[in-house]
Amino acid sequence: MNRVLIGMILCLALAVVAHAELLSYEGFDYTEGNIAGQTVTGTGYLPGIAWYGDTSQVVSAGLTYPGLPTSGKAVQIDGDGNTTLETRLDLTPVGPFAQAGLWNAGNIGSGPVDGILYISLLVQASADTGSDSWVGITTYQNGGENMFLGHPWGYNEYGFVVQHGTRIEANIGTPGVAIDVNTHLIVMKIKFNPNAFDDVTFWIDPDLAKSEDNQDASKTTTISGVDMSFETWTYRGVKQWKFDEARFATTWNDVIESKMSAQNPNPAENATGVPSDSALSWLSGDDASPVSYNVYLGGSADITAADLVGNTAATTFSPTMYNDNTYFWRIDSVLVAGSTDPNDIVQGSVWKFETELSLPVIAIGSPADVFAAIGETVDVVINATDPLGIGLDYQWYQGETGDTSNPVGTNSATLEVTIADAAMLTNTYWCSVTNTSGPVNSGTAEITEKLKLAEWLLDSATDPNSTVAATPESWFFLESGSVEAVEGIIDGAVKFNNAAIWTDPAQASYFDPMNEFCTIKVWVKTDVLYSWNAIVSRRGEGQGWQLREVWGSGSAGFTTRGTGADDGSPSNVQLADDQWHQVVGTFDSLAGVKKVYVDGKLAVTDNVSSVITSTISPVALACRVYDDGDGWSVRDFTTITLDTVQLYNYPMTATEIAMGYSDVVGDFCINPNPVDLDGDCIVNLADFALISASWLDCGLFPSCVDSAE
Predict the structure, then answer these.
(1) For residues 344 and 205, which has the higher predicted lDDT (pLDDT)?
(2) DSSP notation for 3-63
(3) Which of 252, 509, 656, 675 is the most core-located residue (most Cβ within 10 A)?
(4) pLDDT at position 7, please?
């Protein structure tokens, strides 16, 4: 089954130094003076965000380190008390850390993350140091400090502290490196383990001419069994220090960017459409004088000895390559002729490019899964292009990709399927797309049954259970409030006064399919302007979702956590007018959109890039429900009247939503025209009559009207 596949290529560059695979880079090249309030220009941060904190200064004297490319200025912690300086890394589902597989639910390294993060940083102490002068980097998780790196409190040497269960603290290297006024390079490697605690290694002043595995053990410290996940990265200290060249990446080479290693790859990093008969070329590192180069070329970023394709004294090499391939390559600089000693070889960065395409190209996520009901005819569609421009042939099959035993359909990009019975609702289909270069197989699309997961008619103030038998049992929760049966727009309704309905938490997973696709429909009546109060929710703060009133607008919005555009844009249709309004939220992770409809019409669309973050919370009406560790609590009650709340496992179309609204109110004007003067949703002679009644009347002042009284 196809699911959301997110792809993103990062090209992060400064004017002088190219950062090919950095997740984040900061060289502190800002206007000299107070950095607080200046817009962040480094990479890997939230767009448009500014630096904030105390009076840290940008100074002209940047820090340098032998063999490390640098870029000018530095930031200086003034040391006037417990100084802090921070901004926000881009910890969104489309940010670089997420694309590198290091992100989960707004944090780096939390939950199921399985990957490696490297961080490097230049530091320099002032002459005024002492054992009590804590200065360095602090990371935070859930609002608490969980790691200190630099000059830990109580030490006169570079070191670290990890707050994990028992406090772990140590120097970096053995013996430790004393605090002095020299510039030092600190490198940290975190191995995030999804099913266990993490491992972390620290280096101080590594030799950039050597690989990670060949660094001096006396300058290295490793600890295991700690939680290194974090959400905030802060520069902090009580004495005057400087920081510069902060780099986050997934490989050793990318955070040290040694001037000893080969540079300026051709094909360029992430190049596409490279002819398969192209030669590879590069330049020698600025500080290196190699006698030859080892050339590695393979199909994976994990370059091994098996990928060695040649050795050359030149800075070009012509390997055997083929179209329709992604290649990874690396150039190692050999400093001593004939030597295989790792200390005589400078390992280069891993670069990537794609050769020219000749085979058909099938779009990611195509064909998409389809929702259907018994008796409905649906289309399964393949989105493919022909690089040769000649034309494509299509052969559809029922079954999983690669199973050719049951061919179906015609030579078309669209397969039409009529759902004759319930058995067909579990069928899968795939397509083989062919041009003169050969076939390419698509992924598998599944036809899934459209289901109503819950329906609370709310015709009674004493029986809140859903009409759908499978829905978890529901009950009222009162917080010094009441529920009241009132007249609804469809039979009865319930007015909530500091009260709520919520479903059995033990069966909350019943609603998990809504994390990928869903529709939430509800009739709402209120005369109160709320700020972020929930109408229908499944937690919706930090995780889950909620249909709610958007702060200050009085209109509905659809909040989906972990998807991008999390809070949701306001629909700009006033709800707080004491009239009935139908509010509908839809979410489609494959199409990458969520929408809000009000009174049968599309009101707002937001782009999303991931599925909704899972939660163990149940679904609730007129409130939010949380597990605080001490049991379930109900928050943010909304005084509101609700009627007929419905939840579905698929995103309804605009036509389906309009039809459902029309079933209640009758015909309505879905596309109002500004020249429909009599409001009958038709522009005709009646409207012209209204215009002609005032034909040629002039209201210009003072040409036609001489008095404003």
Answers:
(1) 205
(2) ---------EE-SS-EESSEEEEE-----SEE-TTPBP-SBSB-TT-B-EES--EEES---
(3) 252
(4) 27
Contact 601, 613 (CB under 8 A): no
Closest CA to 72 of 120, 13, 29, 12: 29
For 180: left if phi > 0, alpha if psi spans -120 to 50, otherwise beta; the answer is: beta
Residue 343 has pLDDT above 90, yes or no: no
pLDDT, tens digit (0-9, with 9 covering 90-100), for 437-479: 999 999 999 999 999 999 999 999 888 899 999 999 998 888 8
- Give yes or no for a contact between 136 and 123, defined as CB atoms under 8 angstroms apart: yes
Q: How many CB atoms lie within 10 A of CB 525?
A: 20
What is the rounded CA–CA span in Å between residue 467 and residue 454? 7
DSSP secondary structure string, 337-380?
TT---GGGEE---EEEEEEPP-S-EEPTT-SPPEEE-TT-EEEE
- Nearest-angstrom CA–CA distance, 478 and 464: 13
CA angle 115, 121, 123 (to 5 degrees): 155
SS3 641: strand
- Note whether 304 and 298 are within 8 A (CB): yes
Tell me the whole-structure pTM to 2 decimals: 0.59
**H-run or E-run covering 389:** none
pLDDT band at residue 128 using 50, 70 and 90 as cut-offs: low
Within 48-172, residue ranges assigned H as helices are 96-99
Flag whether pLDDT at 524 surpasses 70. yes
Task: Kindly report, residue by residue over 674-705, the tens digit of the pLDDT.
Answer: 887 777 888 888 877 878 888 878 878 788 87
What's the CA gap between 316 and 327, in Å, rounded?
16
What tokens appear for 137 in the block?
């980097």
CA separation, residue 495 to residues 104, 537, 620 (Å): 38, 17, 15
Q: How many CB atoms lie within 10 A of CB 509?
A: 13
Q: Name the nearest CA neighbour of 470 among 427, 504, 432, 431.
A: 504
How far apart, in whole angstroms, are the C-alpha atoms of residue 158 and residue 428? 59
